[in-house]
Specification:
The radius of gyration is 34 Å and the shape is elongated. Helix 3 crosses helix 4 (about 210-245) and helix 4 (about 210-245) crosses helix 5 (about 270-285). Helices cover about 30% and strands about 25% of the residues. Strand 6 (about 165-180) and strand 7 form a beta hairpin. It is built from 7 helices and 14 strands. It folds into 2 domains: about 85-245, Alpha-D-Glucose-1,6-Bisphosphate, Chain A, domain 4, CATH 3.30.530.50; about 250-365, Outer membrane protein assembly factor BamC (TATA-Binding Protein), CATH 3.30.310.170. It has about 375 residues and is an alpha+beta fold.
């Protein structure tokens, strides 16, 4: 037993350095190509010189490297060339997309909500994102569709190589410019992100230089955060809206904007519209066609659905209404919504007809957790 314990200690002592060596490579080292960099010391070879009295062989250009452009960086060699994967813009919002081949950090949004202009929706989401992250706004010009952030200061600790056992403390500051390209029809817009200022401190060293690869990474990273926040807010809004639709809504007798007798629901149009579809189904109406933009519903009354126990006990949930085709007009009235019943010729119901339907309609409209 004692022999086994004594023999275990050297194994543990040898294993610990191995774990350190394999798991403590710095972030910079993990972005370097494996192997050496002696290729950077090799000069360009000379082409084969063929004597004038000898036939020249056929040379293949298959492996010939293209010439660098005038603006191409020429210092990205050896340890200065990173091999990290390129950043990609992630269009996760419904109706968003990217244009293939675009070199800038850009995402396109299509309008899916008509409650407010698309550019206002995008700017509101961006400003809310900055406020949530504690990032100030330096300038914002809605007319020019341009916003410049204040400095984003991020403290970072960088691990050195495993054998140095040290950490380098520093801060990185960034300022971004967001511009919006809104199409004339107002249903599509491109949000662009550009890094306008960059400052990095590492110990006592201060640098404002950043290579083009890192610059794009910075721009794409912040844009993806903005897109993710936008998507998160849409999901929260949809969840809240669904909860409101399922909740009971109070209804009273009143008049629509045309002065015709109608039901007035104590909820906004975007909540009342889907809720009305549920109420109509519960009351025995089949929706044949609809036009949400104009608030029109074309329905057929087939009689209320009843369960076998309701029939057994003689319950009657039917409406005082002939089984026929009808139309409904749903209109905004500020924070409330009016619902006008009409016949198949778009003639509004009389006050007596509306009163006859009121109890059954208001009871179902006020029910909680109505099936969706």
């Amino acid at each position: 037993m004692n022999t086994y314990k004594k023999g275990l200690k050297p194994v543990l002592l040898v294993s610990l350095p191995l774990l350190v060596m394999t798991g403590c490579a710095s972030k910079q080292e993990r972005q370097l190509a494996s192997g050496g960099f002696k290729y950077t010391e090799i000069s360009e070879g000379q082409s084969i010189k063929v004597p004038s009295d000898v036939d020249s062989p056929e040379f293949s250009s298959r492996y010939k490297l293209p010439k660098l452009g005038d603006d191409a960086p020429r210092g990205l060699l050896g340890k200065d060339l990173r091999i990290s994967s390129p950043r990609l813009v992630l269009p996760v919002v419904t109706g968003s997309h990217v244009t293939e081949g675009t070199k800038t950090a850009t995402v396109w949004f299509d309008k899916v909500d008509d409650s407010q202009p698309l550019d206002q929706t995008i700017w509101n989401s961006l400003i809310a994102f900055l406020d949530d992250r504690g990032i100030g706004v330096d300038t914002f010009d809605p007319e020019a569709q341009r916003l410049v952030t204040d400095w984003m200061i991020i403290s970072n600790d960088e691990d050195e190589s495993w054998y140095s056992w040290t950490r380098t403390e520093g801060e990185t500051g960034r300022r971004f410019e967001f511009t919006l390209d809104l199409k004339p029809h107002g249903r599509s817009a491109a949000l662009h992100t550009e890094l306008v200022d960059y400052l990095k401190t590492t110990g006592n060293d201060v640098s404002a230089d950043i290579d083009v690869i890192s610059e794009r990474q910075e721009e794409v990273d912040i844009l993806n955060q903005v897109i993710s926040y936008y998507d998160q807010q849409i999901q929260i809004a949809n969840s809240n809206k669904l909860r409101e639709i399922r909740q009971g809504l109070s209804t009273e007798m009143g008049f629509d904007p045309n002065g015709d007798p109608a039901f007035v629901v104590d909820a906004k149009y975007d909540i009342t519209w889907p809720r009305t579809l549920l109420v109509l189904r519960k009351l025995g109406f089949d929706v044949k066609d609809l036009d949400k933009s104009n608030g029109l519903l074309f329905v057929t009354y087939s009689g209320a659905e009843t369960s076998w126990w309701e029939d057994w006990f003689g319950s009657d949930n039917g409406l005082n209404l002939d089984e026929d085709d009808y139309r409904l007009l749903v209109k905004r009235q500020g924070e409330k919504t009016s619902i006008t019943f009409m016949d198949d010729e778009s003639q509004p119901f009389s006050a007596k007809q509306v009163a006859d339907l009121y109890n059954a309609f208001s009871d179902v409209m006020s029910e909680n957790d109505l099936d969706i």
